[in-house]
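Researcher: Structure prediction, please.
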Amino acid sequence: MFSQPVVRDEHNVPLVRGFAKGIVEDLRVKLPWYWSDLKDAFHTKSLTTILYIFWGALANAVAFGALLGDATEGYMGATETLLATAALGMLYPLLCGQPLTIMGATGPIAAYIIALRSIGVSLGISFLPLYAWSGLFLAVYLLLGSLFSVSNAIRKVTRFTEELFSVLVSVIFIYEACNYFVTLFINPEVSHGEAKAGLFVGLLTFFTATGIRGCRNGRLFNQWIRNRVADFAPVIAIFLGLGVSWLLIGHYGIDKIDLDFLPFTSGDITGTTLGTDVRPWLVDLTDINAAGIGLAAVGGLFAFVVIFFDQNITVRLVNASEHKLKKGYGYDMDMMALCLCTVLLSLCGCPWLVSATVPSLNHCRSLCFFGNEGGNDKQEDEERRIEEQSMKTLNKLRDLVSMSGVPEGDLDDAEKASSVRSVSESGLSHKDLVVAIHKESTSAIEMMSLPSGTEITGCLEQRITPFTTHLLILLALLFLRPALGSIPLAVLRGLFMYNGWSNLAGNEFWDRIWLFITDPKKFPEKSYVQVKLWKVHLFTVIQIVLLIGILVLMRSPAGFVFPIVIGLLHPIRLMLVKLPYFSEEEMEL
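Model: Predicted structure follows.
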């Protein structure tokens, strides 16, 4: 039953499926690849990816752990977040359907946990029992979602929601990084030298990583060397920032350059942030009344909305055709693995983890092959794909030209009448046909004009790099805490900013924001520029208003209900079509 991979019918996917049918199909698709997922990891790309993602996952856990620690008075802090990231980050890739994603805390989830605590405090309900019960209800919702393939609903979500949610995650990353640097200058307890040094090494880390990443499309050396250097861009930036930080400290002295460092101590690894005497690892589920459990049921449902979008949009972005994945997907397996992880995290009072968008996309792209670096087989596959796409393009152009009914040479009256009848029968005007031909030709030109060696030709799909990355985090916590404690927070905030910025690349919502100040003659060759400019700007403004509204709501006393707004994004998109300003065809461009 599970010996051969299954080919799915991608065009007839039901919104929900019968009991366990989806997860059984996922197992039939993924289990035949399991041995390949292990042995394929023996590649140089695995090493570069592990070194890169390790720092990103560490920075992500420390940043959100510190944020949660401040908001929960230490009951859920950096220690809980780091240990949860390390332990569950090793378990999840062994069980899930898409192991290229990276487990971690995210901005939307952290904001929701803070909002959940706020409403609990206002009602006199203890935070950890309310959180644990909410997590158990959340696990039940995830279990039902897995068994009835609720994740199929994500296929109905359009780019309107995907792009807005992706920008939301990036904005949270960039905001937290910038907020740290601003706080350095306005905090009276921070010296002026420390503030300037922190900003300098943070920006140095960010610009170094961004600059080196861009060398993939440069002119120096050959493509293989450029690709290898680009793979190590964040690692190089971190070590450069770390080295410069300690050079400044050595030159000016610790009194003048007293940077903030990772908050690690040499204490017992089994201790919680507040100590097990104050805050034990297992949450007391009996320290809550019936009303609190009722609130937890609602809280778990709202958390399910946030996690549903956070998890599935991330997986969908990773599964995008541009990454050239070959081993299929398993949305229901992902939800089941997430359900098991959520139970453990809730009982221990650790933050819920999902497939974090920015680390997951960085992980996937770091494992991608560019040009012919994947070997002759991948090069031949890419050449075959381009040849097939070229044939399809030529056939489409021939069909479009034939629809016009225009023969070669001058036209007499009879031929003109025949041409008009042919166009009329096709349902398209000559103008529509010219636009369609231009669109198809532009797409073909873009495909053929990619610089050699910069196009993605494949991806190293396996389960070892995410497992090993989180294993290193666990080993570092056990044996390298003094070394980790010597890393300035400013360096990791610079990496935080880089992760958010790099995730914006290729996001059409972000690209359309820049159209407001872009010379119309320099507009990108994108499908949306075919729509009237005022409509494009109006559509973009609507997304901006929704984005700002979500950000404001997340940080307001009513932040507990912001998942409702996220859940309404797709209905809002459907309502836009009913307005007289947009047609369905324009919305799809």
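Model: The CA atoms of residues 157 and 490 lie 37 Å apart.
Researcher: Thanks, that helps.
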